[in-house]
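All the exercises in this workshop are built on plain-text protein records. Instead of coordinates, the fold is spelled out as a row of discrete tokens. Once this layout is familiar, the rest of the handout is easier to follow. The record below serves as our worked example for the rest of this section.
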Amino acid sequence: MNREESLSTALPEVPYELAMDSLTKPSSVSGIAPDSISISNVNLSLGSGAARVHILKDISLRVASGEALGLIGPSGSGKSTLLMVMAGLERPDSGEVVVGGTPFNALDEDALARFRGRQVGIVFQSFHLIPTMTALENVAVPLELAGNADAANRAAQELVSVGLGDRLHHYPTQLSGGEQQRVALARALAPDPAILVADEPTGNLDEATGKQIVDLLFTKHAERGMTLVLVTHDASLAHRCDRVVRLRSGHIEAEAERDAAS
């Protein structure tokens, strides 16, 4: 039995925290490739007045180009917020975020949106499809906004690549949850981004469908050589990443490099 099989077998018998702890140890990952994402001393608070909460606390993290990174931790640890900072969807209060050599601090909102549209693909847990548009139209939207003259054909190619060639003209309500997540993945991949981020991409799916989506994510990551950052509560999914970073209470608590022998 290999390490992945033994971990998944043990999960029903081991509390979540202990299962995740088994993935983390001091990391030796550094300088393996040029950084795709570099975050330095980032702090972020949300809310106002007495309700203001310090979510990210002096976070520093580097993600190498082409690396698959898993972000894990209990609910409220800040992992989804960190992902949004990486994607340029949240601005930190302090610190620096550099993605693909571009410092986000130097970009206004319009420039940041254009950069994100070209360089960062985003997959959400709840799909975020436009209900009045077909699968083809949903995937074509970001391409059209970017001025791609061949948006429809490109969108169709991506849908075929995720196994939805026969669902191009179906609306979200006519698709299963797994099919909707495939549309969302195709939309994220269509601009051919350098970075793909996914926030609990299997959270709304059953186990079998979730496995199909995960396999597809890692296949596309390998085929295109893109950087992949995943937020997950699933230890077996985190284990497939090159490196795992665990957050707790807004801090990076531990890191682990995947066992090369697994």
